[in-house]
């Protein structure tokens, strides 16, 4: 941590700050010039935020130079984390893993129809929302436990792993029972009570990036989960909020590279929520593979026009299968194993 | 809702859309010109999102023209909602209500010292965090239930109402027991499971705006609570995320006016979290009063340099009392009753 | 400047960086701990950007600790800059200065009608656009030189100073001839060729903040002008782009406080462009005065419904005069002299 | 255009609005329900902004349903615009066109060294800044005319087309003389006087997207140029400003798809400015090709550590040639012709 003092800071103000830092067992090293008074703080500063030091009169600016996440950082663990499943699927290795299915679980029949397409495509993971957090209390909120059961049943029928979103910590036992990968939605990324609960889970966590979250904040949420003991985390970029309105959100494709540089965790992309337009999904998926993502989570629907949510961003089976063909070709070129 | 069709939309595509809209009991009215094909949809569209219609091929653009919130809207209820407390405090009336206290409850002694200042200032509501959602799992997370007890005890001693933040729905019974106003933090604004739970509470809810939330989204979260049956909601603007880094967040002062135009709910300002710099709090508080806010929630600390969180934005008692004097003068000029 | 090196940085990489820094006559001071390698750079770093150092392999992160602006900074000049006009108006002193008039100069008659209201209100500066930069090439682009002449003529008739926007450097001679204060529009804030030209002007410059500009970038544009020799700059906050759509832009009211802390330059507020809604202007103007702005620039129109641009945000004379009454009362309370 | 009226709007207010619309030869069509009063406006609304209608009392909300750009729109011209050069290079066709070179022209020798690499890679367009708009007046501002001459000379030597940025309209004759493609920098995207001047140019224009510009605003700037008579425009996405700080800007890769849907103009990507980190350029370039961009503009430098600007984002020749190999492979797979 680097602290810049105000020109007019008094000796007394310096002393107060020094006392505080020493009480935290931090070492102080001076880097001042004639014009600017600066010192570097050496030691473990994780128990406070840089902002907290602005409470000291005389302090002008505080800058953190080490990353605030530890267990999630590449400097803590050099090798990539690989999440392995019983059926041979690996996220974070040389595989390019496809998760696909409808936005919402609507009925057993619907899930079976779509699961058939998913299986046919060569993918191994089925997605589908059972609990749907919607901005309007009047919109469809999901089939809930019934949805989880359908998802599990159809997943087993087609030998597919299943992934779905958890809305709150108290439902964790239910998710542990029915689900293979537990998804955290963008709006819950900083629901820290949920992160703490997931830290105790034995299931891999798919952690979506918050709508306006920085990569540092996103990794800090992963850190919460890892600090609880669960180190199986899949980061998922799903578009961030920007001023652009033609697309629902803006896919931050370089987030894949940022996560790979800063962390050892795998990272996948959700092009459906990022664009909000099915016409863009194939091209964005190809770009995701090209940039080095470990996989995709994509919405597929047999009848998007009557989907109970998010039909706009769902691919019809034919378009989905066309996209998968393209992805397989590109995987081969890039030395990736499409799964 | 207004739907613009693509030029190349086919008859079949029109028909599919019409069937869907009719199945929802919506009336369709044509407003097309020679160049553009547009129709207006009349009826209750709350069961789907405008985006959902993009799933229909042929649809080019969908625009909502009615607000998605109902119970929270000014057109639903003309008169201002006033939240009344037993001690005569009213939020949303001619009173300008001050809530003040430390960021975190740290000890009974600390709370007593600060409560004395709060009381002396003429304020009637004591704030203090018992559960602290922090971005780092390694930072101080609050005294939890112990903090709630201290807050209640000291509040009663000084005859002050108390307000504090709830981190998750399962703690609601505890908050019902100890607290007068239940605060929802910015990061939980779209934790819809929490909103649903608060809809069942008998306590007024202080609903902070999310870091990047639009006013519509913020009012939709209020709608969730109101839909559950609890109509006592105080909106709280606390700064939004922008590109500016000199202040921690950017106070959106016109949000007060937007809420007053769109809704009947009272709205207060938190200048401490907005600015993140104590040097700005007095001036921002005066501006908040001038713009028409119903009150303030401000951080005061007897010893901000050793506060366990957010010391940077806390006022010392002397500066706080100076600010209150200025606010009282301005209240008088503006015909408001400082409480 | 603080440089953090990568863990794996080689001796050769360190050496290359050191040679570069020494070639710039910068002193290097080590602040490394066992875990992190950091050094501070002391000296004049204005000839390069922190980003430039990322070109050196081994560099992990570079942080500027001194502000990049010099002449515009409060540490360069302690006392407030006051812009003085022949008629006694002072911007940056104890005066609260009102600039008002229509968005566009439309005709001599229109300007005369409005100037009468402006004069009657007790204001001394008339605004009005002669050159209108519009996002659409098909929208009204202003009366141009004819507009400047009308503005000057009507200003002289009513003994009002005049302020208007310059669209490009080649028109500077014309503006020098007709105008008292030269305004730079938000979209031109980083038109550095224009900034350089204005550095040679003898007229005060009203520098609007760019739509997404940080305060540092805004002050850097002031620095360009000051570096050219013109130190008479009035900063003007006019709302920034955020995700909120109910208001056209979001008034960053704390920008007034940021500028006052970082710089000695005066700062005013344009509530009309910030809100884009006339219903909000009175309240935002009162808040601007309360927060400590040195003045306002406000749109007034005798017939906003037929204004050729920006009618939505213009006040009618009656509402404008009502607002001025309120501002005068508040000025008196705050010890400011309304002009 | 769709206009929603306030519930309380009076007959007089309706009448005033109708009169205005009729004076603009617009047809009014009612789509009101019992609850909401709405009408659609049919005809040419390009002479005013939707916001202007808020000046009419009684108006609640105005929504544009047609795009404000005409000549730039896909509905105006169905086929892709292809920019053709004498040497067979085509932008907007089946070719994938590479523009590469240093950020700044520093010397003839430097340009010759880099041009050799560019030529060797199989690219046909050389980039290099002669006029450098920098945020600091103290930073290197480019070799100016001398830089243009060097660029031309070296371009001719190696039979490469040259592209460079124009800072202001008065330099257009010089650019016409020396340059093959004239670049508009992000900060000048809404310098409308410059757009008007470029409308008269005979050279293709490379129009960079503004830092916070929406795609609609970006296309409106293209519209300005096209309205002046120059229809040879290459759109260039170069990253937008977001809250993320690890990358300099955030590459909006879906902008390629948005432009292709909304317009007939070609669009390329500048990964160097988007990321600001050379480590990300190869991967982002591959993703750009995969998503369907018509080309790239990339920074290459023989000695980025001593570059006078933007060294951080420049590739060394070896890395650049490695990237080009990968791009060629991928071009082949995708049926594109790498140039």
Automatic annotation (TrEMBL), chains A, B, C, D:
- What are the protein's UniProt keywords? Transferase
Family matches, as InterPro entries:
Aldolase_TIM (IPR013785), Class-I_DAHP_synthase (IPR052899), DAHP1/KDSA (IPR006218), DAHP_snth_FXD (IPR041071), DAHP_syn_2 (IPR006268)
Q: Name one GO molecular function term.
A: aldehyde-lyase activity
Signal sequence region: none
Annotated ranges, domain DAHP synthetase I/KDSA: 81-333
- State the Gene Ontology BP annotations: aromatic amino acid family biosynthetic process
Query: DAHP synthase ferredoxin-like domain location, by residue?
Result: 1-66
Q: Name one Pfam family in it.
A: DAHP_snth_FXD
What this protein is called in its record is: 3-deoxy-7-phosphoheptulonate synthase
């Amino acid at each position: 941590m680097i602290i810049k003092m105000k020109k007019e800071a008094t000796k007394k103000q310096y002393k107060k700050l020094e006392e505080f830092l020493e009480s935290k067992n931090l070492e102080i090293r001076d880097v001042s010039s004639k014009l600017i008074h600066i010192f570097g703080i050496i030691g473990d500063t994780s128990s406070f935020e840089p902002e907290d030091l602005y409470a000291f009169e005389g302090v002008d600016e505080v800058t953190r130079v080490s990353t605030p996440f530890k267990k999630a950082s590449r400097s803590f663990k050099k090798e990539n984390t690989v999440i392995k499943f019983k059926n041979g699927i690996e996220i974070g290795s040389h595989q390019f893993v496809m998760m696909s299915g409808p936005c919402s679980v609507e009925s057993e029949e619907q899930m079976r129809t779509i699961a058939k397409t998913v299986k046919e495509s060569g993918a191994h993971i089925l997605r589908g929302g059972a609990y749907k957090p919607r901005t309007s209390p009047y919109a469809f909120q999901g089939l809930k436990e019934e949805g989880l059961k359908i998802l599990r049943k159809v997943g087993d029928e087609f030998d597919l792993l299943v992934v779905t979103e958890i809305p709150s910590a108290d439902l964790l036992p239910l998710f542990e029972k029915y689900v293979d990968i537990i998804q955290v939605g963008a709006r819950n990324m900083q629901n820290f009570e949920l992160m703490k609960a997931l830290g105790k889970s034995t299931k891999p966590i798919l952690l979506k990036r918050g709508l306006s979250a920085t990569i540092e904040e996103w990794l800090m949420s992963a850190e919460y989960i890892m600090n609880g003991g669960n180190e199986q985390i899949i980061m998922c970029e799903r578009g961030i909020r920007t001023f652009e309105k033609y697309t629902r959100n803006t896919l931050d494709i370089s987030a894949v590279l940022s996560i790979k540089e800063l962390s050892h965790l795998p990272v996948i992309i959700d092009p459906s929520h990022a664009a909000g337009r099915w016409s863009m999904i194939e091209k964005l998926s190809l770009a995701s593979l090209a940039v080095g993502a470990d996989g995709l989570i994509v919405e597929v629907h047999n009848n998007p026009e009557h989907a109970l949510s998010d039909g706009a961003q769902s691919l019809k089976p034919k378009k989905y299968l066309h996209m998968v063909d393209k992805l397989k070709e590109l995987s081969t070129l890039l030395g990736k194993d499409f799964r």
